[in-house]
## 1
Amino acid sequence: MTERVYTKEEWIRGLEGLREDYTLFVPVKDGDFHAFMPMNGEKVPDFDFQNTRLSPKSVIYPRSERLFEYILGNADPEANILKESSKDFSPRAIVGIRPCDAQAFQIVRRNFDNPEYRDPWWVRHFESTTLVGLGCNEPCSTCFCTAVGGGPFHEDGLDALVFDLGERYLIKGLTDKGEAFLAKMNGGKPADEAVLKAAEDLTASASQKITSSPPTDPLKGKKINDLFNAPFWEEVAFGCLNCGTCTYLCPTCWCFDVQDEVLGKEGDRIRNWDSCMFPLFTLHGSGHNPRDKKVQRVRQRFMHKLKYYVDKYDNGVQCSGCGRCVRYCPVNIDIRDVCERMNNY
Amino acid sequence: MKGLLEHVGVEPGRLHFSWISSAEATKFVDVANTVAKEVKALGPARYFIKKRAEVA
Amino acid sequence: MLRYTEKIQETAKRLLQEKRVDAFIGYGKGSVPMMNQPLMVSDPDRVDRLYWDNFCGLNLCNYLTKRTDKVGIVANGCNSRNIVTHIIENQIKRDQLYIVGIPCEGMIDHRAVMRAVKQKEILDIQQNGKTFVVKGADFEETFEKEKFLQSNCAVCIHRNPVIYDELLGDLVEEQTGVSPYQDVEKVEAMDPEKKQGFFTRLISRCIRCYACRNACPLCYCPTCFVDESRPQWVGKSSDPTDTLTFHFLRAYHCAGRCTDCGACERVCPMGISMRQFTKKLNKDCQELFSWEAGLTLDQRPPLDVYRPDDYNDFIK
Amino acid sequence: MSDWEAKITTFLCNWCSYGAADLAGVSRFQYPPNFRIIRVPCSARVSPKFVLAAFRHGADGVWVSG
């Protein structure tokens, strides 16, 4: 396992040097918040951030993705055939991804890459991406990663992890992908004992800063039907606007909607993010909608995350505790509160 | 409608409304000429046209 | 502002106990600072969850549509105007409502506060009349409320509720001398190309979560045009033209009805200022029809009626 | 660019302007060929969606006439 120390300037220079080998996605300050954007020499990476507004899921799973395309006509021999769109699967790296968001990819992976079903685009994007995490020195009060099996310096799901030690960064390679990334990166010195000790202390102190931790273990023992018919859903759902903020900001929401867009003699099949909060999500062709009430949709979101997923994959909840939905829900529906209610029911 | 379209940047000469009775063939021709002239003067539209989606 | 909390609780309790209303709609204190949760209480013993402060920027009229019971509701200036609009549009009947009016002094813009503390995490906010204290892990700062109003509140000229059954405080003085449409005028002065650039940039961050549409009390159609599929008017991808079409038509559907309550902007997770669209229409309604939405129950809105002296210049 | 001809989506009321266009035709009046006429039962049938749809499909101009 490689462990190297960089000064902050060295680190940025090292990343610059990697731009030939990788498309680097780095946190960039964009107006009021941070977003992962490709490092292109113009935008300055800013690693002094709490977390990005939108999760980095869009790097692997874009909000709209062209899957197939066709053209009509007689002149072109390639015409009249529905072809898979060409995609860029060259190596990418998300640098500065928080451990919770990296863990989220593992959660989503169970859905997109399992023995029954394998999503070729998601898997190839995921495999070509190196996740270089940045531990959280100062977790937010809304974070609850420790409650869902993660932590501010959790290593699962990451290829390398960076510790921010004030003046310097310590970077640890964790997987082959991470080691390859480090091998290509210039600069840095091998880490000494003092630095490793500092990193350990940081990890311990950060975990203690996580204040909210709704237990998720009791969920497994509950009966689905009991929770489904619980009386509290009406109350939880009352304020809900049925907007897509929670699902679109969530790093573990994976639902999509495939749309055909036809324009004259050409057309595309596009996969877009969809949200279980929208009535259209479950609308049948017949006009029937099995989830046409707000309360049914809100229940679906929480039941899926906190119960169905738990039962199906037996691998914890479908939530990485990043706290985005808690912070940005316009009507303050708090998943921690809902989880408590489900626990106590 | 016209006000908001122009506000978001569609040129004023692109959208026209008129009121012509079925007996007013001459007015129809007049208005048709004006409309065509104004739109031609603006050249081809470039804005608000749905092209192939700009997606990944 | 905070003093209203107790009064709201008392009133709600009384109304529920006297069976004047079946349910009472208000705000509850949120689990994170600067966020409040819309709340419905039907048990008189649970009114202590009701709350009021400077961050009640959501519009509660959303929760009135299609109700058949009798409801009590708290309403400040803009919310009361939306209630009027609802009544005019037959979304609820006047005698179903018990409106508890709150003279409003403006809501605080949570984004402006975040900017002022450089996006550091806020753990607690104390509100004391004209100032408020923001506390974080390693800082504590005091700000003047006046400077942190939501942009729609800063130019609001209808702070007092226009319709109510009971008022919970003395009417406040309305602001005078504000010029609400300065930003609209700035855009109006641009040439078409600049305008295109302005609006393209404005909505470039939009993720199409439809929070603005759903937070808007005016948007109560059973099927929104973006959800229609036969024919499909708008694509669902992140294509800029589709996004622009959505914002354009959403705004257009609010013509002559928007009360500039600011809920759309408040809820946007990406901080898009979509009031730039609706404000232009408000300005046009003001100039062409001398109309502001939701001020009276006795007059039909301008796009609803024909008058021989209607503005006619756009027709050849 | 020189052979560019404007395409103008035109919504005409069946009872008014469509009649006028018909009359212009039988009277052999000349008018420009750029219009793509859609006959509607009344100009009030034209929803703002139609106008946007026309622009989205690449119309250079839209003319609504009652």
Note: The interface with chain B takes residues 1, 4, 6, 8, 15-24, 27, 29-32, 34-35, 48, 51-52, 55-66 of chain D (CB under 8 Å).
## 2
Amino acid sequence: MSDYTSKIKEISERLLKEEKVEIIIGFRKGTVPMMNEPCFVKTPEDVKELVWDSNCGINLANYLTGRKEKIAIIAKGCDSRNIVTHIIENKIKREQLLIIGVPCKGMIDKNKITSMFENEIMEVSEDKENITVKGEGFEKTLNKNDVLQENCKICVHRNPVIYDELAADLIDEQKVDRYEDVRKIEAMSPEEKWSYFDDLLSPCIRCYACRNACPLCYCPTCFVDESMPQWVGKSIDPVDTRTFHLLRAYHCAGRCTDCGACERACPMGIKVRLFTKKLEKDCLELYGWQAGLSLNERPPLDTYRPDDPEDFIK
Amino acid sequence: MKDWKPRIVGFLCNWCSYGAADLAGVSRMQYPPNVRVIRIPCSGRMSPKFILAAFMKGADGIWVSGCHPGDCHYMEGNYYARRKFALFKNLIEYMGIEPGRLHFSWISSAESTKFARVINEVTSAVKALGPRKHGIKTMPDELVKSKISMAK
Amino acid sequence: MRFITIDKNSWANGLENLYGNYRLFGPVKNNNQHFFKELAKGELPDFNYLNTRLSPKSLVFPQTEIMFEFSLDENDEQHHILKEINKDYSPRALIGIRPCDAASFMLVKRNFDTPEYKDNYWLHAYESTIFAGLACDNPCNTCFCTSAGCGPFHEDGLDLLLVDEGDKFIVKILTPKGDNFINSAGWETEADPTASEKIIAEMQIKAEEKIASSVSTDKLKNKSTIKLYDGTFWDDIAFACINCGTCTYVCPTCWCFDIQDEVTRNSGIRIRNWDSCMYPLFTLHGTGYNPRNTKMQRVRQRFMHKLKYYVDKYGDGIQCVGCGRCIRLCPVNIDIRKVCDIMNNYEG
Amino acid sequence: MQNPYLPYPVRIDEIITETEDKNLKTFKLVFINPEDEKKFSYMPGQFAELSVAGKGEIPIGIASSPTEKGFIKFTVNKVGLVTTCLHSMKPGDIIGVRGPLGCHPWDTLKGKSVVIIGGGFAFTTLRSSIVYMLDPLNRKNFKDIHVIYGARSPGMLLYRNELAAWETRDDIKMHITVDGTDDPEWKYNVGFVPTITEQKAPSGDSDTFALICGPPIMIKFTQPVLDKLGHAHDHIIMSLEMRMKCGIGICGRCNIGKEYVCKDGPLFTLAELNNMPKEY
């Protein structure tokens, strides 16, 4: 990954020196293992802070909303798709952006790795295909592909879809079945589904990390904060919690790129992607749509075809 | 359970299905009385929040009806609505609401017969499912416990 | 000071004896994470843990708590009048709470138990609780309790301290409440105070040595509040923040709450829910004006409150026990240790 | 142990629409349990939480004076969920009142001259203060009393009958103003509050305190005028607003620095505010 980092630094330094942009949005080294912190860099001297490795799972498109200056942003496949969505939804202008594309081999799942060890992990390093985990009295090397975030495992757009610079050569895309888990739930009876999601959501503390980590969630007033009328209660009542998750997901219908930011951000480890993935699957099956691939197509809920499927309507 | 009467909320478009309801009434058609009608300006105005709010407050079934594709008073409101409905219906059924709870239809203001037929279908589908078992907001356990302990 | 030892073979038996007299709460593993949970009869707390994912604050200060109930039915003689509800404040015991979490209740108590106003809900729950601490000998890499006025064997806020010594616990009984608890369990193997104290002191030194990270707080008290508030470092700190409430919800010392009314048909409740200074709605005026409108202002509020306003108000502390949860669970790696050091060393 | 979150039940006795836009109504409330009135012992400048079952609570300044017995009054602007509901209520309806809350300035003001400067609907607690000071038993405790009160138009002035009555007295100097009017009958000032303050307010001295309550923009432009008139910053008392919930300094949202506006305020001297973060 160090070659990615040095290439990113090199491009960033050049862009700042040539005054092509005022700010670079990227990552700096985190203070704990398997975490990096989104950051901004405004001078060529500070470019040294930037890093790239398998802990850059945050979707940086989240930091673009409403910015006014000329920006260079580092973008994995999913980030680039959300940048496209942001441009389509007028949250940022294409002309403002210089996109430094990063062909992405997936981000590692911190929760999964943490749960593999009883003792505290003190240090994690990586080397091409391998992740080495060290802690008090243990050291273990893992295959990176075994510990990827769930969304990265099934990612079919690892290369950025839109970019001005590239931090590395493009890579082969995967051919995978994206919806095995969704189909499993679809096959359940209503009763089973209900209790499945009750269990899934029972740890939720309504902190809204899933919502806030999502680059799609930029409404000035979220529906959970509306008071006249109040659509959803603010307690941890299971009915309210479920309604929150349902509406949050539905609000991302046809826009979600499955970047995994929501799931990664959840402090309770809830698989919140199970909601958005269902919508993603339906958008693909009903409307042939994948979010964030093109600047020239309107998202599925912003358009229609006269012959859209309607067998569910009497 | 025999005496149980379902509570169904019907969201009807002002320009078509609402008129059909009127016509069905004027024509003295017989249909079940379990639907509470809320008039909406267009099926395109229908927000998923309305459906969730009705379900949270205890509706046993929900029925949304608008103009036939191509006949929207606002040209294309129902086309957009159709996509929203498809995704929404799939999502709430995926989360465990039974398929017979949420219904959609296209009924023009002249189709009083269809109106009566659909309201029959909706009502019998909801009746067949019985009362909702989940997802109705009730008073929290703590309050229930408090009442029990006060009664002791 | 009284010391006893509990043979681990008689641990379950003692808890069984306590069961009728106390509601027992302890760490339980669920989905690879530990949480404090009420123990069913026969259920044992799982002490094989670093720290619980969430702090046990919710056992005294629930995330959602009913304050009052009322009827909106005009046929009801007392309609629209708020009434108190009957609450369960029977004795409860938090078994295996870490010293940092126990210390947090002492900080929070300053907020809920003031000379002018007493928050009955918090105080009643707090007073009905026994804090049976578990000394910490396996800290996380994010722990910095020793520099946050606390420590792995810290006793403030505890009624008794359990120290794990292989096949037995050494128990240091710290309060009469703790004494009653031990007696009720029927554990009675007295231990020699001097010898026990010595063993514990040795273990404590070892445990403290393991705590690798720290914060510097010495200069915070004398720093100018206005200068820190106007500090130039806030934009950099706040950039990554996504304004979720995770840090505040997992924090044992965050106490802010919101009050809401909820109505079902003709009856309603007034409840309070945890709230967070990270949310814009927290300070939004009715007019639409918001004194903390930007993300940076909200992030600044959180750190200034913990590390400066609290110090200004009470003349000591920081409002933090160094449990490290906010560092572990922040989705974007904002680290209070870093912020604290920046503030402590800021010369603006 | 008294539960500080439990409101006293009160009955709405009378509702008066105060302004021509009908957005301000005064609610005269009577305690359902007479003993609660004794417990609710307040001073002008304090506020209370009005509680509407099913909607919530809002902090509102007390508009009546403790010298007026048998009722309390609140003038409420229609803004959000609770106030909209209050505006739709009728006499006889039951609500709740929790308080009194916040601090008051009367230990400081005793024996002094007082300059009251108010704008818009923030005049409520100032009305309370004026009624309190003009009470025959209290008037001797104060020297000169000046009142500068402005609203957008004559129809937007609160308590118009009382203003007219105070105008005719010689133990209080009234300077009523409106931003503008085409009413030929209008016989008072026309101009913004800062301008009228500059023209009419007495200069500052150690025996004079200014009491300001109004919208932020008015405060912003009045403050330099008071500086010019020689009012010392520790003799200017301002009332702040914040979103509040508990009202007793516990729920955590209304702080400015270490001070909670609900409990340590809402009144602060300008000298105090100068040493607090500008986050209000």
Note: The helical segments of chain D are 34-39, 81-87, 106-109, 124-134, 160-167, 193-200, 216-228, 270-274.
